[in-house]
Write a structure and sequence with these properties.
The chain is an alpha/beta fold. Helices cover 42% and strands 19% of the residues. The chain binds zinc ion (ZN).
Length: 379
Amino acid sequence: MKHFEVIKTDPSCGARTGRLTTRQGVVNTQIFMPVATQATVKAVTQRDLKECGAECLLSNTYHLYLRPGLKVMEHFGGINGFMNHDIPVLTDSGGFQVFSLSKLRKITEDGVIFQSHIDGSTHYFTPEKVIDFEKSIGSAIWTCLDVCVKNPATRAEAAEGLRKTMNWAKRAKKHFLEVTKDMEEEKRPLLFGIVQGSVYTDLRKQAAEAMAELEPDGFAIGGLSVGETKPQMLEALQAAIENLPKDKPVYFMGLGTPEDLWDCAELGTDMFDCVLPTRNARNGQVMSEDGKYYIKNACYRLDDRPIDPECSCYCCRNYSRGYISHLYKAHEILASELMSIHNIHFLINQAHKMREAVAAGKFREAKKAFRERYFQDRH
Ligand SMILES: [Zn+2]
């Protein structure tokens, strides 16, 4: 059974549309996936996620393992039963969180020992254990434990991180095959390998080639959008994509500005996730086709237009900028909810626009049109 099908590639660039079939349903690409770190997309109900058009969510092995714990996940029949929705979920392996959140971590050949950021308790992740954790979480798409090097990293540090990541990926794949061997093909989860290599294009190429040999169901690009320059990010991404098979999905981990989505989709990235739309919403920043802005600014006090007059989300169908500006300034929690719904809808809609552009064979023109309006900055 083929899990990913490329529907169309734009003639002018690498942008493409596709269809990823998971055990929990079909995920059309390009796609933006809202982030449900703690088994919730912050301030957004399942009903609203569906209305926003969410086709896949991103959740996190590290967080769910620590809290509520895997017993709870198993009790509820996995994350979909726990959250009570049928949207497919992709779980990050926890590699990034172990390296960014936990205290006193120690990486060995075998795995990583770390202290919980919640209570300081000691834990030990290995590539095999993470596969078992993802089985308990019951997500549709699993990822292999990886080593995330800091940015900037020396070439030697990046190469060493990559060496361990690849060894771990081999072990993860082997264990994945054992864990899933009795599952029917349509019931089995998908496994994505994480391509590392920091900003070094030769390491990205090497990582892509080595990961391709392992034949995972898809490729996640890790360790980018972590503080490197935009040209460095795009070069590293391109070096990876050029050396990956074209018949598998490519997922850029943690990228969420609309302009970055367009730029990376142009190179052939299919899937995106980021906390940015909900985090920015809680800080009062919203996106519109005419640029991003802060709702608290005095000019919106008497503005009876919706956040984005072209948006069809629940927030824009029902509320004015003036009202939301008031809610935000009064620290009313509804402000976070409404702006989160809008920002998520906006990025999902950008992915829909990309699909339409590829279908029409006009990706580059559509990207140019997006940029001309978005950076003109007039709302
Ligand atoms: Zn809206």
